[in-house]
């Protein structure tokens, strides 16, 4: 397994991580036994970075990951997040980053994960009501207390990242990045690189769209939240499917799957970038890991970027309300 350092933090992780969100919520088809088997198979294959959050399944995902890594803690760089406050029934209460909540959320995550220290602790979304200095200051207190090793931010704007890094070193910024979500190339990537911060790319397969498996919105079960995302609806779906067809053609010429080509592209964008494709099945995990053997030339990258230029995708990443919580 290729290892990559997150920026200049000293924290080294596998070049591909595993996003665990879909094992508990948002994507249809939950099977805890297969999910646990997938996590353990990932560790067997050399994956070290596991990504979860306290809001996935309202704590269920952390408990699931905790069960899966029991007895194998030394093989894992465990990343989790706080920030989205939810009721027990899943109702969203909004984003919180006040120091009291930071401490409370950390203690709860440690208990659910059954661990003594979190390797990488992210603020899941920036709280516009709390200065980032206060939030990161509380996170830094957790580092000093030995409950957290490294700090991260998710979906933070360049100016916010700079302010946060002035309070305490930030090891990683996590943001959506893929062939169809290339917005970080505008300013975010250059900002984190200048600050020595690693970049963790979530949804590097476009929430599964770039795999070519989905041909119509009805392919998603009624309880799959992707049905509610603008890119997966109506005319947007049809237009985006045309883009994916071009990626599929390039993958065929390259002798790999569309998913492998899409992941190889993210991997090729810099040694400081670590994609965390999510899956809850071992067979897809193995397919994703096959991307590590796909080497793209400058010509290959240019071809992909020509069929998926910045701004080509139809629809926003989230509905309007969701977009208000990103790039803050």
Q: Could you explain the architecture of this structure?
A:
- By secondary structure, the protein is α/β, with parallel strands linked by helices.
- 46% of the residues are buried.
- Helices cover 37% and strands 15% of the residues.
- The mean pLDDT is 95.
- It has eleven helices and twelve strands.
- The strands form three sheets. An eight-stranded parallel beta sheet has the order 3-4-5-8-9-10-11-12. A two-stranded antiparallel ribbon has the order 1-2. A two-stranded antiparallel sheet has the order 6-7.
- It is globular.
- Helix 1 (32-44) links the parallel strand 3 and strand 4.
- Helix 1 crosses helix 2 (60-68).
- It has helices at residues 32-44, 60-68, 99-113, 132-144, 158-167, 188-195, 234-254, 258-268, 282-289, 298-307, 320-323, and strands at 3-5, 12-14, 18-19, 49-51, 77-82, 84-86, 92-95, 118-123, 148-154, 172-176, 198-202, 273-275.
Question: What are the salient characteristics of this protein?
Answer:
single chain, 328 residues, two-stranded antiparallel ribbon, 11 helices, globular
Secondary structure tally, helices: 11
Give, in order, the helices and strands. EEEHEHEEEHEHEHEHEHHEHHH
- Unreliable runs: none
Helix proportion range: 25-40%
Estimated structural class: alpha/beta
How is the biggest beta sheet arranged?
Answer: 8 strands, parallel
* Form type: globular
Number of strands: 12
| Euclidean distance between termini CA atoms | 34 Å
| Average pLDDT number | 95
Arrangement of strands in the largest sheet: 3-4-5-8-9-10-11-12
Q: Give the C-alpha Rg.
A: 19 Å
Strand content: 15-25%
């Amino acid at each position: 397994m290729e290892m990559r350092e997150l920026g200049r933090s000293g924290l080294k992780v596998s070049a591909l991580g595993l996003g665990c969100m879909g094992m508990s919520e948002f994507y249809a088809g939950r099977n805890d036994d297969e999910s646990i088997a997938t996590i353990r198979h990932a560790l067997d294959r050399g994956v070290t970075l596991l990504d979860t959050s306290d809001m996935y399944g309202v704590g269920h995902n952390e408990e699931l990951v905790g069960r899966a890594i029991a007895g194998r803690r030394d093989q894992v760089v465990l990343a989790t997040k706080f920030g989205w406050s939810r009721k027990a029934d899943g109702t969203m209460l909004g984003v919180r980053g006040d120091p009291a909540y930071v401490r409370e959320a950390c203690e709860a995550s440690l208990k659910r994960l059954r661990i003594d220290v979190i390797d990488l602790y992210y603020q899941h979304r920036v709280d516009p009501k709390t200065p980032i200095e206060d939030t990161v200051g509380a996170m830094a207190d957790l580092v000093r207390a030995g409950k957290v090793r490294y700090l991260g931010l998710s979906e933070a704007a360049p100016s916010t990242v700079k302010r946060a890094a002035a309070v305490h070193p930030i090891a990683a910024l996590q943001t959506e990045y893929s062939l169809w979500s290339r917005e970080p190339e505008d300013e975010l990537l250059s900002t984190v690189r200048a600050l020595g911060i690693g970049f963790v790319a979530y949804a590097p397969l476009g929430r599964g769209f770039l795999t070519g498996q989905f041909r119509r919105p009805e392919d998603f079960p009624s309880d799959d939240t992707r049905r509610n995302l603008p890119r997966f609806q109506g005319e947007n779906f049809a237009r985006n499917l045309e883009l994916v067809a071009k990626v599929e053609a390039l993958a065929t010429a390259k002798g790999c799957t569309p998913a492998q080509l899409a992941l190889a592209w993210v991997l090729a964008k810099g040694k400081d970038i670590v994609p965390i494709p999510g899956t809850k099945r071992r067979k897809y995990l193995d397919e994703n890991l096959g991307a590590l053997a796909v080497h793209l030339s400058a010509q290959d990258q240019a071809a992909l970027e020509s069929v998926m230029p910045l701004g080509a995708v139809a629809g926003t990443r989230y509905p309007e309300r969701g977009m208000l919580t990103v790039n803050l």
